[in-house]
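Students often ask what a 'structure token' actually looks like in practice. Rather than answer in the abstract, let us consider SDR family NAD(P)-dependent oxidoreductase, a protein of 289 residues. Its sequence is given first.
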Amino acid sequence: MGMSNSLEQLAGGVAVITGAGSGIGEGLARVAAEAGMRVVVADIALERAEQVAQSICEGGGEAHPLRVDVSSAGSIDALAAAVHERFGDVTLLIDNAGVETLGYSWELSAEQWDRTLNINIHGAIHGVRAFAPRMIACGKPAWIANTASIGGLGMMPIQTSYILSKHALISYSECLFLEMQLAGAPIAVSAILPGPVATRIFSDGSTTTDSGSEAHRSMMNAMLEADGISGYEAARRILPQIAAGEFWVSTHPEITRQMATGRAQHLSTLSKPALPEEVLQSMGLSVDS
Ligand SMILES: NC(=O)c1ccc[n+]([C@@H]2O[C@H](COP(=O)([O-])OP(=O)(O)OC[C@H]3O[C@@H](n4cnc5c(N)ncnc54)[C@H](O)[C@@H]3O)[C@@H](O)[C@H]2O)c1
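Now compare that with the structural description of the same chain:
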């Protein structure tokens, strides 16, 4: 199935998108609705989810806001039960909610570590645990996608908790893909690796009290504002790839390829961790050779 008409397969289905009150998730909700899906706009920020759903409905689509805290297994279980009861079989689940946390690893509080890992990693794990059994049982072809990052292929100090969570999501998605095959379930699994998208992720990110983590946050925020595509544009690139059953889903294929090649080289030569020159420069680190 080609990319251009792949979205047609989604029409009439039910989509659940977490973190859909902003950014990439909001874009995915809009594009899924345009593809004829009934969309559950799930977010911890219910007011934002309501605004997104209302705007989709005003444009002629179908969307329903629901509150979920993906860091809580119980909250996701309640979402899955409510969605099944109100809207029937889910055919597209996108575990998209994620947060940024900045600071040296040893300076993040235990609460900051728990929050980051619970939202970014456990949010996807419990999303699948809560939704997949009913998706499999109904026997319909369906799609599950987890929003990782191009950062899941690389290294970035000061964003350690975030970066390791994205590595984990790629690993999780790979194993989940194989599990669906083994189980003979008609569920496609994708790992989404967005490049720069202009969203609220860094402005909302939590930091440590040292000035370095605040400076890093400002630098990353400025980079997204300058270079990032919109959440809607990201979703227009992402959703057709998911629908077509691609495992690796990219918004910036060139950057994804560079990062993947860099990772492969790093591992095949068992090199020490290092950052590319341009990254060091953007972090304001002197590069004496
Ligand atoms: N923006 C980028 O450049 C970029 C790049 C790569 C990956 N990503 C990933 O894309 C995903 C979406 O990020 P975004 O950039 O659109 O950010 P965003 O901050 O604009 O949107 C994230 C949404 O998730 C919600 N959220 C946060 N904690 C939650 C929780 N506990 N339960 C439910 N919802 C919660 C927020 O309220 C927000 O509406 C994240 O997983 C992020 O890591 C973003």
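One point worth highlighting: The two ends are 50 Å apart (CA to CA). Ask yourself how you might have guessed this from the sequence alone, and why that guess would often be unreliable.
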